[in-house]
Amino acid sequence: MAISDYPELLALYQQRSPLGQSEISAELLALSDFVYQQTQKNSPITRDANLSLPQLLVNISTESQLKSVLRQYRNQILVELIKLEFSSANHSLQVMHCCSNLADECIQGALAWLSKDHMEKFGTPTSDSGDTQELIVLGMGKLGGKELNLSSDIDLIFTYPQSGHTQGGKRSIENEVFFHRLVQRFIGILNDVTQDGFVFRVDARLRPYGDSGPLVLSYEALSQYYLEQGRDWERFALVKARAITGTIAHVAALQAILKPFVYRRYIDFSMLESPRQMKLQIEIELRRRHLQHNLKLGLGGIREIEFIVQALQLIHGGKHVQLQTTSTLVGLDVIETMELLSKKQVKTLRLGYLKLRHWEHCLQGIADKQTQDLPNNELDKQRLCFIDSQLTWAAWQKEADAVRAGVHQIFLAQFRDESNTADIGVDTELTNLWRLPEVCGVNQGILSQLGYKDPVWVLKKLAECKDRLLQKSRPVSEKATLKLQGLVPTIIRLCGKEALAEQTFDRVFLLIDQILTRTAYLDLFVENRSTLELVIFLFARSPWIAKHTSQYPLVLDDLLNPQWQTQPYTIKQRQQMLEQTLARIPQDDEEHLYGVLREFKQSQHFQLAAGFISEQFNVEKLAKNLTAIADVIVRESLKMARYQIENRYGRLLNEQGEDADFVIVAMGKLGSREIGFSSDLDLIFLHENCENESTGIKSLEANVYFIKIAQRFIHILTTRMSSGVLYEIDTRLRPMGNSGLLVSSIEQFASYQKAQAWTWEHQALIRARVLSPSRNLAEKFEIARKQVLTIEREQQKLLTDVTEMREKMRQHFSVSTSEKWSLKQGLGGITDIEFFIQYLVLLQAHQHQELTSYTSMMELLKQLGMSGILQGEQVKLLNSAYQKYRDAINRQALQETEIQNESQWQEISEQVTEIIQSY
């Protein structure tokens, strides 16, 4: 094919052809924007092939020089590899190896230079027995398998053999501190974007505990984690683990820890179910993210091939050590030899893998972007066609579709699960009714017999739905229409069994209307009768669940996995799910990260609402789980915010050379772990005192830097997307309220609380707790909090302050009347109990400091009883009332009712009021 066959590519070729160099063809300049941009830079595009990276680093004396050399070296190698890949699809394997070797070189070179510089300051890290210690860098994922692509993150885990202290430096520090600081510098060297670009985007989230864990762990800590907490997905990840640095002895010792965790000594049949669960997650991700055109994550993509190979490795690799390889293609060779797959299947997967990797390289070579999405613009389509000698995009796509179809067929065959399919049967009578839903005696009679009290209304609704199907403005596929013919009769029959048949029917059809153009969800109902029955059960009992599901149909994916219905996830499991999902997403893909946070929240709220309305757990467990979800979202959002600010303005370091501490403090219901489905988050932001400026090209003073982090954090949580907002944020409980600074130092906060804060602010402080990880700022906050709460207060003034504030709130918020009563603001209601508990804590904490150890109202109530401040019967009654009120409020939210009849609560509210007035 000649370049003249591709009009848009030809125009670019003609524009750039005068710039062609002897080493760089004009064709390559037109095919790759990255190569073109490199030719425009002052640094030479060619390099001395006789100079290795270690030789180039010999005379480097500053980190700035180190960054520059590494980036220029990487860019020059990348130009050569793009040229090689674009010349023929047969070079993909060579390009993968070269990319991986380049990453190894840069990691080893940067680490060697930094280690030497680090040891000059702090000495040599040494074990207690006197052995020299070193940092071991484990390459994971494609880097571990020497299969790196042209523009990839590198997944790394950092570890070292033994604890101890440094020796021979200006001052001795613990090995843990030494390596932590070393890794922080190392990541910045590779990750930071300068005028020369970056070296590699470093992702360290595959380490134990993910982002919330330490950057570096000793072998002992690593071993303990995998022994006690290692999960199946981590076994999958560690199949690819390869040591890039370290002596033979240290690497062998590390392998002795990892191998038994990854590979069992027998055929591991337990891994038969785990791949099915992971396959389920893949299918959910495909639906949610519309990844049909993604070469890695879409059907028949690269991940499916890797998944097949790794699953077989984990099942059989313990017994057959030849399967213990980090290479996908070597793994396929062994699988063929062992006849775990047929020769035809292996051939399909091998050729598919090389083809997909070639196309992936071509996509990434265009602009040095980490993408696997097929292009949606004509120029890039023509670029791919020209590279592969395809005259049209249709021909190129036909070949790609054939390759992916072959891969996906094998993937389905390997992990098919026949246990969860049940066809919805044919119902002739209701099928005819759906085909012609006219208001007539026959149809009315059918619906009446099924339990509908207003069959005419139902028939009109069905007719409206039929009309919408025919609207030209919203075309519905023939496939969806056929699915509905089998689905609607079953929906009609099942809704008729519910007490509120018409309302349930209406709610279900609102959902159907939302998913008409997403046939994957119609398939879900058609193929899983039990799933449809569960949806109808939940919709009948909660309009909130119905609206939530219709607004965010992605939560239907949760119904595929029944575990949460029979064995609700623990708080830790819920948090791990989010951490694992985020770990697979590039940190620069902000829109995707924000979307995942929102999808996680919508999914978890759906599960918890379903569990609560089904009475699987009580209000206390509900609140703790809702709070845990908010906690993990806040922590992950703060990490994202800080990462984005660091990328733009550099890091902000304290006097010890560590990242300056910044924390989020939860107040209100979040602080006391009592939030509901629609709660705002009351938060304040605190930081350690820091006089430095950030290290970026655009540097900022510390106070401005911290404000930027807080603002970015708020943006992440409150930005409205198709999957909604995360939470509304209320920062009015900060010092001086809305007129005060968004962010305060811990010293400013403590001073304000002691000298200027109102009594109601001290009440709020009772519920306060630090949410985000912190080295010592959390401890400083807790000291300041306890000092304020344990101030001895004059009883009458305290009583007056608390009572006046309560009355102001009652007048402002209360909607109670003689017939209707507010659970929250009514006399003897929730807020009265909370104010009463807070009053007693502020009055008694100077004598009973144990009261300051709790933020939960229930825990405080219990402690007030144990301290003798309240009598046992009083504690029992207040606890019972508080629980019943909160249970009712959450059920009101799910059933979308608000006001209670006062007579229903009169006795209990009067008992509460009597106790409060006795004090």
Relevant terms:
919 residues; Four Helix Bundle (Hemerythrin (Met), subunit A); mainly alpha; Beta Polymerase, domain 2; five-stranded mixed beta sheet; globular
Describe this protein's structure:
The protein has six domains: 1-31, no CATH class; 32-262, 2-Layer Sandwich (Beta Polymerase, domain 2); 270-392, Nucleotidyltransferases  domain 2 (Four Helix Bundle (Hemerythrin (Met), subunit A)); 428-541, Four Helix Bundle (Hemerythrin (Met), subunit A) (Up-down Bundle); 582-789, Beta Polymerase, domain 2 (2-Layer Sandwich); 795-917, Four Helix Bundle (Hemerythrin (Met), subunit A), CATH 1.20.120. Helix 35 (795-813) packs antiparallel against helix 36 (830-844). The protein has 919 residues and is mainly alpha-helical. It is globular. Strands 2, 3, 5, 6 and 7 form a five-stranded mixed sheet that branches. Mean pLDDT is 88; it is low at 418-426.
CATH topology value of the largest domain:
Beta Polymerase, domain 2
Instruction: Tell me, rounded to a whole number, the average pLDDT.
Output: 88
Q: Which architecture of the largest domain does the CATH hierarchy give at level 2?
A: 2-Layer Sandwich
CATH superfamily of the largest domain: Beta Polymerase, domain 2
Number of H/I helices: 39
In summary, what is this structure?
This protein is mainly α. The protein is built from 39 helices and 14 strands.
Describe the secondary-structure layout.
Elements: H1 7-16, H2 26-31, H3 33-39, H4 53-56, H5 63-87, H6 92-122, E1 123-127, E2 136-139, H7 141-144, E3 153-160, E4 164-168, H8 175-191, E5 201-203, E6 216-218, H9 219-229, H10 232-238, E7 242-243, H11 248-262, H12 273-289, H13 302-316, H14 328-337, H15 343-367, H16 378-387, H17 393-415, H18 428-435, H19 441-450, H20 455-470, H21 478-496, H22 501-515, H23 519-527, H24 529-541, H25 543-551, H26 563-566, H27 571-583, H28 590-613, H29 619-649, E8 662-667, H30 668-671, E9 681-687, H31 702-718, E10 729-730, E11 743-745, H32 746-755, H33 759-766, E12 769-770, H34 777-789, H35 795-813, E13 820-821, H36 830-844, H37 857-866, H38 872-895, E14 900-901, H39 902-917
Parallel strand pairs: 3-5, 3-6, 9-10, 9-11
Antiparallel strand pairs: 1-4, 2-3, 2-7, 8-9, 8-12, 13-14
